[in-house]
Amino acid sequence: MKTLAIRLEDEQHARLSILAKLAGTSVTDTIRDAIEAHLATLSANPEISAKAAALTEEIEREAAEQRSAIAALFPDTKPATPRGRSTKS
Asked: Cβ(61)–Cβ(67) under 8 Å?
């Protein structure tokens, strides 16, 4: 678990505290729930999904370039199998 410090305006903190108290939950749990809801909204957004696909392609392209550079520098080095992929057919 990670710790995160955020700064809130006094009014925003007051509203958060009151709403958490009225809901019978902690401020921390209210924040966690709000973040989880926002993350779900973002991950369902087709525009964000398209950006994720493009970023994945960029990461794969950069990794391939780095593997090629390592292979050129160290030709006797066996390339590692990417995580989650099997070398068996």
From this structure: no
